[in-house]
């Protein structure tokens, strides 16, 4: 039991063997489902989170995984009452002021649980290295990000801020150091980390950052998604309230609000399923301000003025292959992925722009990656993967890292090129892409990804070494603000240096220069007029 200012918390101890040759070893204390804010239900729906002064129970039971936030692809139970976090600590953590890693899951702000990773792996690869780990849940979809009328935006991000305040106030009771908190996000979680690093209201809540496969450019409304996502939501949902969407965006918003307050949020999930880019963070003059004529230039302004903290960026070699794989898992045949399909697919990734503009942009994006044989359908799969990976992941990451390094001597960059069967979602013929989430199974020694590979006889000695490598790097960065002695930081002047994580690890430069020129110098000149 741990005593906190909000009351006592009861977790459980996970005992594993001490043989480090085994997949899982070591021991730790686990606390699952600690509430960090009141239930955002009833009158609190669409409101900012409200912190608990005292836990609802005394002692607060934290021995079972909490329900996930409402989302369109639930794996287990979901609930609107979902503002919980999980804490994993060494058994002897009390009074040790250990470094803390707080993880924000990805999922385009539409899906993702806070407890997706196996406690056994977290204890083995991070807690056993004397790191306290916190994973959090935050509101997703319309509950977390819809805005209009008196409904303020970005509640999901405000949830994360409230969880970070909890960590600042209580983590010392679990053996953690509130002055050594690393905020780590993947995908949209990395985008949230980027925005929080710029937000004055989050200043001082974390001291270091890791951004994996994500950037503020990817999830701020108006940078890539020219639509107002909330207005699109109104267009789809207002008829179920007997209201004209056009009048809702005018004089009838109060009636729409009353209707939403009475509806089951699960009835809105079809909208989330159709969102190609997910929900977006909105400029609100609280979290993020519109300081320039365009969303893109406003993000640039914010990036240039953020707090200087040690920061690590990382991407996967073939980021977008994860979403491409889903098409084939859903029944699309690779032979259907021809040149015409490829162009249409890329155009669809730029919602809200004119057809002429998306047509031109798609042709420019695909041109450097087009297969030599224009009838090579797998070649077009690879071309789309490379083009969209450049647009949404590698070029924005390069730009963020380069901008930050102008004033920050502790910016580190990596790309993972290590191909593996661990976590693979689809078997492409004659191609083994390194897709988004590539590093997560190794960082957290994720049970399902690794056990599935083991079951299929695909978990190798090199995979096990990669688990050890990422655990060591993450723990060292959390402890020292440096991932390793041989990993050089990004220079403020020279080529963008990065660690290539493949069969071996080596420093290389420049990082994705062609992607940066293509997207940051050419494509964004076409799209930047969007406000």
Topology summary:
Elements (H helix, E strand, L loop, with lengths): L1 E3 L2 E4 L1 E4 L11 E9 L24 E2 L6 E2 L8 E2 L4 E6 L8 E7 L14 H7 L6 E5 L4 H5 L9 H16 L5 E11 L1 H11 L9 E5 L3 H4 L9 H9 L7 H4 L4 H10 L6 H5 L21 H10 L6 E6 L4 H9 L9 H10 L6 H12 L10 H29 L5 E6 L23 H4 L3 H9 L5 H20 L17 E4 L3 E4 L4 H15 L4
Parallel strand pairs: 2-5, 6-7, 9-10, 9-11, 11-12, 12-13, 13-14, 14-15
Antiparallel strand pairs: 1-2, 3-4, 4-8, 8-10, 15-16
Helix pairs in contact: 12-13, 12-14, 13-18, 14-18
The CATH architecture assignment of the largest domain turns out to be 3-Layer(aba) Sandwich
How many separate domains make up the residues?
2
Largest sheet: 11 strands, mixed
Q: In CATH, what is the homologous superfamily of the largest domain? A: Alpha/Beta hydrolase fold, catalytic domain
Q: Average pLDDT, to the nearest integer?
A: 92
CATH topology of the largest domain: Rossmann fold
Task: Please give the CATH class of the largest domain.
Answer: Alpha Beta
| Content-based structural category | alpha/beta
Low-confidence stretches: none
- What overall form do the CA principal axes indicate? globular
Distance between the termini: 51 Å
Question: Helix amount, in percent?
Answer: 25-40%
The beta-strand count equals 16
**Radius of gyration, rounded?**
22 Å
Please tally the helical runs, counting DSSP H or I stretches of 4 or more residues: 18
Strand order of the largest sheet: 3-4-8-10-9-11-12-13-14-15-16
Query: Approximately how much beta-strand content do the residues carry?
Result: 15-25%
